[in-house]
Protein: GntR family transcriptional regulator
Organism: Rhodopseudomonas telluris
Amino acid sequence: MRSQDRDRNRVPLYLQVASVMRQRIESGHWSEGDKISTIEELEAEFGVARITVRQALDLLRDDGLVESIRGKGTFISGRPKEKHWFNLANDLESVIESVRDNVIKIVSIDEQAAPPLLQAGEGVLAPDYVQLRSVQFSRREPFAVANLRLSREIYARDRRTFNRKPALPRIMEMPDIDVARALQTVTIGVADPETSELLRVGLGEPTADCRLVLVDSANVAIYVAEFHYQRNCFALRRDLVPKPAKTTRKLAKAG
């Protein structure tokens, strides 16, 4: 493999090439039925070895996006699955409603979990945490992997529900839980080996990562969750025209 092939970054080159080509299909740069560049042209364009281009095309072919016809070339044969149906909510009540009916599959539970690393403003640690790792599904397809560290004291109150359903709505139903702050951070990441397997995406493919921390009235971080969303399902939509100010209210309990 060429030296430049080794030096770019740790995401496999064929995944990088496949990602660019998939974006061209998604954006309409390549339409269904179009003949795309030859392997030799793609090799020159991306500055990669021929085997890298072939591996990228194999991924797109497996996704039903391209087909090769002997003696004629490679053609766009389909469109990516429905995109950007999941819009990240920007207030706590909307977040709760967006996850309430999610179907989850618990991957692992660690009742002796290490505490989360808290950022400035995220409160102080609870005495102990339970870690729940799960996959969330829509239409029987996985769209997010969640890593949640939940105060063990809260987990022990209703472990059966926490092991079967999204934790956030149940927490907000508890009458003595007073959430003072709900801190949300959104970043761009890549799928590590476990996440790529659980989401059924390529290793190193981009993900939309959301961190949500609930801090109670005693300044304790009772809920620290990290969600990794498939990039094709995720959107962040905001109305940038200011709305008239509303009366500030205390965070309401859901339910």
